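Minutes, project check-in
Item: structure for the 452-residue chain
Input as provided by the requester:
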Amino acid sequence: MAERRGFCLVAGNPSASLAGMITHWVRLLASSSLAAGFMLLGAAPRAAAADGDWPEFRGPGGQGISTAAGLPLRWSRTDGVAWRTEVAGVGWSSPVIGGGRVFLTTGVAAEGEPPSLRVLALDLATGAILWDTEVFAAAENGRASMHRKNSPASPTPVLHEGRLYVHFGHFGTACLDTGGRVIWRNNRLRYEPEHGNGGSPIVVGDLLVFSADARTEPALVALNRKSGELAWRVAREIEVRQKFSFATPLLAEIGGRPQIISPASGAVLAHDPADGRELWRVRYGQGYSLVPRPVLAHGLIFVGTGYNKADLLAIRADGATGDLTDTHVAWKMSKGAPLTPSVVVVGDELYAVSDMGVATCVDARTGGVHWQEKLEGGYSASPLAAGDRIYFQNEQGLGTVLAAGKTFSKLATNDLGERTLASYAVAGATFLIRSEKALYRIGAGPASGRGK
């Protein structure tokens, strides 16, 4: 089944043992239908990321979890830094990592001029820029209004089977090889954005899927990832005043069926990868400008509801179809619900941080609050879970490390002194942080406090 290739979360039995689920995962790996990728079990979030490559927004499976050991506890702009490389232009895409290289997008423009949209590859070991390829020239792009926290290069690339897929929203989408050669480009799907672009693409079998939730005629779009041609486009049939949103979809298997979970203004919808047909929806009124990526754990899908006042919904994933608004919302959290950052689930606990910096830990199954505390600054980046720690990066460059658990415990705060809106990427016992002007690799020297 082609739609199952790549990273796919499975809504499994939440009471199953981790050992049993890993055995199931290994057995699935051996099947011919999954030979090109692997499946991740939604009931076992700690199995969601393997050490090594970090191929998409929020890592393998898109859940913000790393199994890497010994990630840094302490760092600063000068201490615990393996390297810092200046990056030209403006971009808030997160880095992706594979084959000893780091890939990043950026938009380079003269004052008041349209951007040249580019892709860079850096050497993971040294931070040296290996190549810098223009994908869409400034003359092709035109100017568009941009929110002060957005950029012309905000969607994170996807690295899959030796191909790098980059997406610049309404400016276009492209495929490159890892040497920087452009294989195809598609800038024919023009639409009118509100505040710029945001949502990242995902690989679904032979498709590249992304949201195109524009000011008018919002849609979910799938391209043939081998040719770049349109495979299908499904309009959002939702009655909502503000139609624009920026969320990244999630591929999951629910009730034995692969589904694309796609938050939009007014509702979260699930689609059949084969043709984009809607399978189910949960409505949330006039919520708009959705950003958080869905998370799947314990048979629940966790989604935000957008502006002007966010809620966090836990939706039962059991294979039902149709409008599930009145039957499948297991619990809802309002206080501290994020507008922009995604959440992360570790074991039985869900961790979130609101845009205003209210960090929350709740029971993932019930929504019962364990603790809620204010962190410094405002937040756009999504949290990272690794080992027994949760990492939060605020917009002013301050990284806060908390102990995972039902009791609030702050382990460290680390200031880069530069604006940071992009999310973490993990490489071995180090991680990468993109700032407004540079890319950092954190995890070198005694100040990194590995294992301490």
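Outcome recorded: Residues 100 and 343 are 28 Å apart (CA to CA).
No further action items on this chain.
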